[in-house]
Protein 1
Amino acid sequence: MLKIRFDLKPQDLEKKIGRLFELSAAKIRSIEESWTPALGSPVFTVKGRYTSMSWTEWTQGFQFGSAILQFDATEDREFLNIGYSRTLELMAPHVTHFGVHDHGFNNISTYGNLLRLMDEGRVADQKERRLCELALKCSGAVQAFRWTNIEEGGGYIYSFNGPHSLFIDTIRSLRSLAVAHRLGHVVLGEGDRKISLLGRLISHINATARYNIYYGERRDIWDIRGRVAQESIFNTNDGQYRCPSTQQGYSPFTTWTRGHAWGICGFAEQLEFIDSVSDEDLAPHGGRDAIQQVVRRAAEAAADYYIESTPSDGVPYWDTGALGLDKLPGWADRPADPFNPYEPVDSSAAAIAAQGLLRLGKHLKNDRYWQAGLTVCHTLLEEPWLSVNPEHQGLLLHSVYHRPKGWDFTPKGNGVTYGESSMWGDYHVREVSLYLLRIINQRPYLRFWSDSSD
């Protein structure tokens, strides 16, 4: 169980955050100098060097978004120029990528961050504002059209696996629908039928909360409150729910911890977002109280399970039911061991979950969640998790991509990957650090949507 430190304040982490962004600058420069766009988006490191892995193109927004976050934290315009130019040059195909559920990852991290900085007056050249706004409107519309209706009404944005598949991951990609809605975008279907982006966002929240989060209500014999299924499978002929599943976890009945983290962070952000929507806009979709109750229930259940099932330092193993954990007796009561020979840890899950815990704690005024988030950050912002080797292009060490497929680099003679980084892990440790830095410096609260649409 996570051993929460209740004595931590954001200011206690300021020096660590400063060091992180000092290290981060060199990592971004190294990738920019060595990366070849024609080879695809960088995904994870192999022996400390970023490489591509063709599956779906979902990490490029984290690459350029990292440079934008670096500028946000440091005011170094070198990194704004990298993020700005690369976004305008290379991100357009991601705006109209009809084959993925990852629009909130790719396009909010780039176009969204740029638009936010424009609204804050941090980017003086506003000539690309309309381009960013158009990109975000189109991204939200494309994401919303990956739609499957379900039996009891409503539906969900389906994953790249196909119309039968609802991923927990997608709860954080709802940001693309939210931003497009706030920008006043109107989506038209057959016969010019208007489709509400807000309506689809709320329907997806309801489906994810119902089918991907467990509440200890005997849904199956492994129903433990807060456990998360990465994937829910539906019969697309009649919209009936069929079963849990997973692509990257150990089994459908265990919790893949990065998916778990996406759920915590995604639901916490949606709680913040729903607060910003008017009662008038929410009324056709169930009303504020009912919507908030669903989101809060899911967020609290997932957050509680994370705290209860994660090692004492707040960094989880890649799946809470992974078979090799039986060979690590007492693993949940001591700090995670990235060098053990049985099961890998996943620091990227910790970075994502930390932001969710912080946002949830702040929104609910819940000190337990807030301090849990600070505790995880306190762990991640130092060795052995923070990469201090100038030859290593990664920033956050001991991340895992796809354990079942064995895609992660594993040193010879060892059955477990360790010492490597991922583009999403590096992005999210920067993002949660920026989140805290803004609070420390009493700057505007870090949100995913832009004030231009308020």
Protein 2
Amino acid sequence: MSTAIPSIDQLKELSLPAPVSYVPQTWGWWVLLALLIGAALVIGARRYWHWRQNRYRREALVRLAELQNNGDPVAALRQLPELLKRVALSMPKPSPVGASLLAKWPSHSKHRSTASLPSPADSFPQGPAALSKDKWQVFLQQHSPQQLPVDFAQQLAQLAYAPDATLAALPEQQRQQLFALSKTWVEQHHVAA
């Protein structure tokens, strides 16, 4: 028997295992990756579409801030009703979902026809441009998430047609309230999809 002590020079370094690949090894991971990418694209497209649909809001809010900081309060108050009317005209038009499919169904079908569906445009067939007085108030209230003053449309009409002296005599608190109500309506009004 040999009693020789092995030297450290005889030791060999252990080899490291092959590096682990980050590429998925099974088809299930590829499917999951495709679903995640598809979902990200759909969410991104919806957000972009929503951002584009609300361009009129952003522009109106910028214009409203300019009017509120205007040095001439009478001119700013005069332009407030026009701004709200422009916002109402710029709102995306509602389109009933599935109306084109319902129109293709035969009239003798057991399903509902398009004539029986209420159209969102039925309540204001002329559109917001032709609305005045009570109908304008109803339109503003229907699209507002919060209760508006009962005479809000009348106040807007006064801003548009009253003499300059009447507008100059308005108290500062009432002016700020009109701007605040207008800003809230522009920011929060809902549009039928």
Protein 3
Amino acid sequence: MAIYEVDELSFEVPDGYVDRSMNVFVPPANMMKGTPHNILITREPRSEETVAQQAARLLKELASKMPGTKILGQRDRVIGALPGREARSHGTRNGVPIYQRQFFVGHYGTLLSLIVTSTRAQSAQCDALAERLLASLKLRRR
């Protein structure tokens, strides 16, 4: 896998604005049938809740936006040497059964969410990709 560095630019942001940016990674068109995984990284402002509480709330919001979503399990997990939360879920998107591994970690006032999605039939490969992603994750100091 190639190393991706998120801090590739800087600019002034008006006071009060919050970072809700996303990074989306999808396989090239010639790999879509064999490896239909994608990776989504989102940012939310940290709340006063614990990471586990904020993650649970976000998962509930996600489930309400995607009918038929079932949270299969959640657990605390160290992510990049920080306390984090992991969840697994099933759902249906555009009639296709999907599987997701989600990871949440607080980092300097931001809750980072890393979501790896695949078809449900590819869940074992999705788990392997998610573990590989986490093994390579390095959170930067500010």
